[in-house]
């Protein structure tokens, strides 16, 4: 299984999270993570994100994990430019039925990180992907809470990690969040294994945007001619 982890990071903290998700993926039998960083160098003169080699690597993946720091209450602008280029694979529903998951990192415990995860989850839904959330119980609900607790933020839509503003990419996020990141990677690998085992019997049946429009013009009976 090929599990792509595609992310952006302004100062390295979100990269640290991505690397720990990779550790969790790589520890799972027959799974390998492909770490892909979105950078400013991939932005063209027209201000759009474009990198065909990265798009090819994503097309080849069984699962894609999307991650960005939360900046000003939503996902890092650089990462948003990458998401907008998803319009190209969207046209033919190329990523349909791939497993998807998301993560975000920021300085505050909340910091409005939920907005970034919702943004990424809506994108994955538009791409016809199958969303996987965090599977761990909340670690921060009790008096005995410690920074080594798993799922300290109590987030399930996707992985939330906190990097204190005065921590470096080496010292932040804190240990519990890094452990949660690894567990998240393993959960995605395991879910992808369960999903791909049935893929031969039930392959993805993408319907392109133009084919969908053709059928709508032909009328409702046209849709009955297909099994998708
Ligand atoms: C422009 C900017 C906006 C930010 N906005 C938020 C925010 O809305 N919420 C928050 O908790 N932290 C915010 N932060 C802090 C970052 O999320 C935090 O430093 C994070 O660890 C950065 O990750 P990175 O090193 O991968 O870029 C912001 C930082 C910057 C530079």
Features:
8 helices; 228 residues; 7-stranded mixed beta sheet; Rossmann fold; 2 domains; alpha/beta; binds flavin mononucleotide
Descriptive notes:
- By secondary structure, this protein is an alpha/beta fold.
- It folds into two domains: 2-197, Flavodoxin domain (Rossmann fold); 201-228, no CATH class.
- It has helices spanning 13-26, 52-59, 77-85, 87-91, 113-126, 175-197, 209-218, 220-223; strands spanning 2-7, 32-37, 63-71, 74-75, 99-106, 130-131, 159-162.
- Strands 1, 2, 3, 4, 5, 6 and 7 form a seven-stranded mixed beta sheet that branches.
- The model has no long low-confidence stretch (mean pLDDT 96).
- Flavin mononucleotide (FMN) binds at residues 9-14, 69-73, 105-108, 111-112, 163, 165.
Report the CATH architecture of the largest domain.
3-Layer(aba) Sandwich
- Overall 3D geometry? globular
Question: What kind of sheet is the major sheet?
Answer: 7 strands, mixed
Secondary-structure element order, N to C: EHEHEEHHEHEEHHH
Low-confidence stretches: none
> Considering DSSP H and I runs of 4 or more, what fraction of the residues is helical?
25-40%
- Hetero compounds: flavin mononucleotide
Q: Can you lay out the helices and strands and say which pair or pack?
A:
Blueprint: E1 2-7, H1 13-26, E2 32-37, H2 52-59, E3 63-71, E4 74-75, H3 77-85, H4 87-91, E5 99-106, H5 113-126, E6 130-131, E7 159-162, H6 175-197, H7 209-218, H8 220-223
Parallel strand pairs: 1-2, 1-3, 3-5, 5-6, 5-7
Antiparallel strand pairs: 3-4
Helix pairs in contact: 1-6
Bound molecules: flavin mononucleotide.
């Amino acid at each position: 299984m090929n599990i792509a982890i595609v992310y952006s990071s302004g100062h390295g903290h979100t990269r640290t999270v991505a690397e720990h998700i990779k550790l969790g993926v790589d520890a799972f039998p027959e799974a390998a993570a492909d770490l892909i960083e979105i950078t400013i160098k991939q932005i063209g003169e027209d201000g759009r994100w474009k990198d065909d080699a990265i798009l090819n690597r994503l097309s080849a993946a069984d699962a894609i994990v999307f991650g960005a720091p939360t900046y000003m209450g939503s996902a890092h602008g650089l990462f948003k430019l990458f998401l907008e280029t998803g319009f190209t694979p969207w046209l033919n529903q190329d990523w349909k039925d791939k497993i998807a998951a998301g993560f975000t990192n920021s300085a505050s415990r909340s910091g409005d990180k939920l907005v970034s995860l919702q943004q990424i989850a809506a994108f994955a839904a538009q791409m016809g992907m199958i969303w996987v959330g965090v599977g761990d119980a909340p670690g921060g609900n009790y008096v005995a809470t410690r920074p080594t607790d798993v799922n300290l933020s109590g987030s399930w839509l996707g992985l939330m990690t906190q990097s204190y503003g005065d921590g470096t990419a080496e010292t932040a996020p804190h240990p519990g969040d890094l452990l949660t990141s690894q567990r998240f990677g393993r959960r995605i690998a395991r879910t992808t294994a369960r999903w791909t085992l049935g893929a031969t019997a039930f392959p993805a049946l993408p319907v392109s945007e133009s084919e969908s429009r053709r059928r709508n013009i032909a009328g409702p009976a046209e849709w009955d001619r297909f099994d998708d």
